């Protein structure tokens, strides 16, 4: 039987980089009765949230919402814009970029996976100059899309999407730009229209602070045009029927009614606070957590300070220490979940999520659990990261000038 009594008192510390903790306000909104998804109240809700959600993506174009995890929205992006056999250029930044590449193969696309050699790609962001060079070689424009991950959740590295746009333009190349910001949206700066993104893919359970279960495609006019002629079979994911039904606030099939209540509430929370404030709070938390890692004398997975993730921090364990053994001690002793190392990073590092519904003291507790657990696991620490982060938060109030 499922043991739901495992956490005897207090709240579990869910500090993985998604799903992130769901605020009570959102849980309460979701607890309302499920209504008729073809009735007038639902249509009004649909119209309101389809309009509001555009602000978070920073787009004036439609945002499509699927009752699916983020992976479904990846498939939707590929299957609405491309045809079997199409060449696509993908950049290896970590585990999620790798999974998206695997999906492209399964969909019978011809993905080319470029990146920095070996493990280096997993410690840096997308190298826009490599994309530009590859596109310049592609004189007959066989490459139909460039696919990149904005916030690589497996490593804690972001990528400069504006630079990727500039690279495509500098090569004079017509390829579509498809961007996964499943874990970046509403935590890291993101601008669908300004950065000329054709399809932005996102999900509910990270910066949007919702439970898992809905995901998004923000689209450009060019992407919609491609979806009218592309040859990939698509039905559930097809944009045309959804966009048509969305005009009146409905979906062609049953949407996730209660998750949409939650989304409506989450959008209100984010817009009331102001997106700039939300982003500033994430940057500050990330800086505080990095101060702790530095004081411990440990390495951060991301090796380029210009692209440190505001969403999560990858903490590298010294040679000979299994990061998952450390995570297990922390979980069992302190009721604290940290992200595991994925793919090539397995066993080498763990990930601290600092996104969504956190505050200074939840992060201090998290860092306290990490510090105590690492000591129990025999990780040699140079000093107290907990003390360093407490100092950082105390002396860097949000909205201060410094
Ligand atoms: C979480 C995540 C995914 C996968 O989303 P699911 O909801 O698990 O399908 C893909 N890409 C990135 C960057 C993610 O953070």
Description of the molecule:
This protein is an alpha/beta fold and 402 residues long. It has 2 domains: 131 residues, Aspartate Aminotransferase, domain 1, CATH 3.90.1150; 248 residues, Type I PLP-dependent aspartate aminotransferase-like (Major domain) (Aspartate Aminotransferase, domain 2, 3-Layer(aba) Sandwich), CATH 3.40.640. The chain is 41% helix and 14% strand. The protein has 13 helices and 14 strands. α4 links the parallel β3 and β4. α2 packs across α9, α10 packs parallel to α12 and α11 packs across α12. It is globular, with a radius of gyration of 21 Å. The model has no long low-confidence stretch (mean pLDDT 97). Bound molecules: pyridoxal-5'-phosphate. The site of pyridoxal-5'-phosphate has 12 residues, from α3.
| Proportion of residues in helical segments | 40-55%
Q: Characterize the main sheet.
A: 7 strands, mixed
Assembly annotation: single chain
Task: Indicate the CATH topology of the largest domain.
Answer: Aspartate Aminotransferase, domain 2
Give me the Rg, rounded: 21 Å
Termini separation (Å)? 53 Å
Q: Count the E strands.
A: 14
CATH H level of the largest domain: which superfamily?
Answer: Type I PLP-dependent aspartate aminotransferase-like (Major domain)
Side by side, the strands of the main sheet go 2-10-9-8-5-3-4
Helix-strand pattern:
EHHEHEHEHEEEHEEEHHHHEEHEEHH
């Amino acid at each position: 039987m499922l043991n739901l009594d495992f956490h005897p008192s207090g709240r579990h510390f869910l500090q993985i980089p998604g799903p992130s903790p769901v605020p009570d306000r959102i849980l309460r909104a979701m607890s309302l009765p499920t209504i008729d998804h073809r009735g007038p109240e639902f249509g009004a809700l649909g119209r309101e949230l389809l309009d509001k959600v555009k602000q978070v993506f920073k787009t004036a174009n439609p945002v499509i919402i699927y009752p699916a995890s983020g992976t479904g929205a990846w498939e939707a992006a590929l299957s609405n814009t491309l045809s079997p056999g199409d060449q696509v250029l993908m950049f290896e930044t970590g585990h999620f970029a790798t999974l998206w590449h695997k999906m492209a193969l399964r969909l019978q696309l011809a993905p080319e996976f470029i990146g920095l050699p070996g493990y280096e790609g997993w410690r840096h962001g997308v190298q826009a100059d490599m994309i530009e060079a590859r596109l310049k070689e592609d004189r007959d424009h066989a490459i139909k899309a460039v696919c990149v991950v904005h916030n690589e959740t497996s490593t804690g590295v972001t990528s400069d999407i504006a630079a990727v746009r500039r690279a495509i333009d500098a090569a004079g190349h017509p390829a579509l730009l498809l961007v996964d910001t499943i874990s970046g949206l509403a935590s890291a700066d993101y601008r669908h229209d300004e950065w000329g993104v054709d399809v932005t893919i996102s999900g509910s359970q990270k910066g949007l602070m919702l439970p898992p279960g809905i995901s998004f495609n923000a689209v450009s006019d060019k992407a919609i045009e491609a979806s009218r002629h592309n040859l990939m079979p698509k039905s559930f994911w097809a944009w045309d029927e959804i966009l048509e039904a969305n005009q009146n606030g409905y979906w062609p099939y049953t949407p996730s009614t209660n998750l949409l209540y939650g989304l409506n509430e989450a959008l209100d929370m984010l817009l009331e606070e102001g997106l700039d404030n939300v982003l500033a709070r994430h940057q500050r938390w990330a800086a505080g957590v990095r101060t702790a890692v530095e004081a411990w004398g440990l390495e951060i997975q991301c090796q380029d300070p210009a692209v440190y993730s505001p969403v999560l921090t990858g903490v590298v364990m010294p040679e000979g220490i299994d990061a998952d053994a450390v995570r297990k001690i922390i979980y069992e002793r302190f009721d604290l979940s940290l992200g595991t190392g994925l793919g090539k990073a397995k066993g080498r590092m763990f990930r601290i999520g600092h996104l969504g519904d956190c505050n200074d003291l939840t992060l201090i507790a998290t860092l306290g659990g990490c510090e105590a657990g690492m000591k129990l696991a025999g990780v040699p620490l140079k000093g107290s990261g907990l003390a360093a982060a407490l100092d950082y938060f105390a002396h860097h109030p949000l909205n201060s000038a410094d």
